[in-house]
Design brief:
By secondary structure, this protein is mainly beta. It has one domain: Alpha-Beta Complex (Phosphatidylethanolamine-binding Protein). The protein contains one helix and nine strands. The strands form two sheets. A six-stranded mixed sheet has the order 2-9-8-4-5-7, covered by helices on one side. It has a three-stranded antiparallel sheet with strand order 1-3-6, with no helix packed on it. About 30% of the residues are buried.
């Protein structure tokens, strides 16, 4: 599987438009080479460097989507609504939807991860990252990731 964005290169800087200092819109994403048997896809975007890359204490979740149809080749820029049939999980702001990079200190890494699943998933309420990962266990056919970085212009260090 491959995951790319026309907005930033692998390990490159995420443009300000996709952050809290800009329009806070989601970047365009494209995936390809899904394995045979893929029934749905899941997307998790998180930051393992929170709150400070010099002393990370948690992984901050920025976006969760699941039950994405394998026929979707990606997500457009500013994907305010999930693709048809897809559902959203809760990010660490306790809401659904994309929340862009907004690191308080230093340059953080943001992992955009796509998982090919052999099943669809069902939740009574929007799941957390932990709940989604638990439900995906034993159903991941393949996964890929794209890492971008960002440091706020007004942040310390």
């Amino acid at each position: 599987m491959k995951l790319t964005s026309t907005a930033f290169a692998p390990n490159g800087e995420i443009p300000m438009a996709y952050t809290c200092e800009g329009d806070d819109k989601s970047p365009p994403l494209a995936w390809s080479d899904l394995p045979p048997g893929t029934r749905t896809l899941a997307l998790i975007v998180d930051d393992p460097d929170a709150p400070d890359p010099a002393a990370p204490k948690m992984t901050w979740v920025h976006w969760i989507l699941y039950d994405i149809a394998p026929s979707a080749a990606g997500l457009p820029e500013a994907a305010a609504q999930p693709p048809s049939g897809a559902r959203e999980g809760l990010n660490d702001w306790k809401r659904t939807g994309y929340g862009g990079p907004c690191p308080p200190v230093g340059r953080h890494r943001y992992f955009f991860k796509v998982y090919a699943l052999d099943t669809s998933l069902s939740f009574a309420h929007p799941p957390t990252k932990h709940q989604l990962e638990q439900a995906m266990k034993g159903h991941v056919l393949a996964h890929t990731e794209l890492v971008g970085t960002y440091a706020r212009r007004g942040a310390k260090r």
